[in-house]
Amino acid sequence: MISTKTINKNKTMGLTPSQRKEKVAKLREEHDDYFQNIGNLNAVYIPKMAYRPSGKDDLHISFFPSEMEKQEDVYTEFVSINYDNEDPKRTLYLHKYNPHWKEEYELITSNSGFERHLVPVNELKIINDVTSRGKANPLMELEELPDPDDKPIGGIDKNERILASLDRIAKALEDIQLKLNK
User: Fold this and answer.
1) Average pLDDT over residues 18-31
2) 61, 156, 169, 181 - which has most CB atoms within 10 Å?
């Protein structure tokens, strides 16, 4: 016979580590093609719950210090406390690694004593969602633009390089518009 105490204990325990790992692996499957396309099969993927912390106006996610100490970009999507997806579009976000995370992200301590750093959702970069998966991203084809503050290369000054970069961007945007209009 199961006592009420046992039932209540099981309710508050949440997922076991193996259940959480299994759910995260299942969630990640949705994004495996993207990770394969960018050539990063070992991308750090940590689904997170977006919430409005007490005293804050905006949505945040939180990272444990051990997750930030990996010193890597983190891919995420929004899930419930039980790791069920909460976004029907399954939007994949990127949190670029910030070497100043200890100073810039507020440290909070949960009621259970766990420390986490708050990251505003507006700092996340939207990578894609189910409506954009499988479509080529012409912007990803752009070559990396030179830093205009670098010294002149081959006698070309900074202003000429900036104009050349802007011309390449304008051409890429025209190509995108043409593809969208087809």
Assistant:
1) 95
2) 61
Could you write out the DSSP letters of every residue in 53-99? -TT-SS-EEEE-HHHHTT-S-EEE-BB-TTS-B--TT--EEEE---T
CA–CA dist 36, 70 (Å, integer): 21
* Phi, psi dihedrals of residue 6, rounded to the nearest 5°: -65, -45
Residues 6+ apart with CB under 8 A from 108: 53, 62, 115, 116, 117, 118
C-beta neighbour count of 46 within 10 angstroms:
17
Average pLDDT, the chain: 82
Helices then strands, counting H and E runs in the chain, come out as 6, 7
Measured between alpha carbons, how far is residue 108 from residues 54, 95, 113, 116 in Å? Answer: 11, 19, 9, 5
**In whole angstroms, what separates CA 26 from the centre of its chain?**
17
Does the predicted TM-score (pTM) go above 0.85?
Answer: no
Sequence-separated (6 or more) residues with CB below 8 Å from residue 109? 115, 116
**Cα separation, 78 vs 91, whole angstroms:** 8
Q: Which of 30, 60, 63 is nearest to 132 (CA)?
A: 30
- Both tokens of 92, joined, read 């994949």
Q: Is the dihedral of CA 163, 123, 47, 88 positive or negative?
A: negative
Identify the burial level of 61 via C-beta atoms within 10 angstroms of its C-beta, where 0-12 means exposed, 13-18 middle and 19 or more buried.
buried
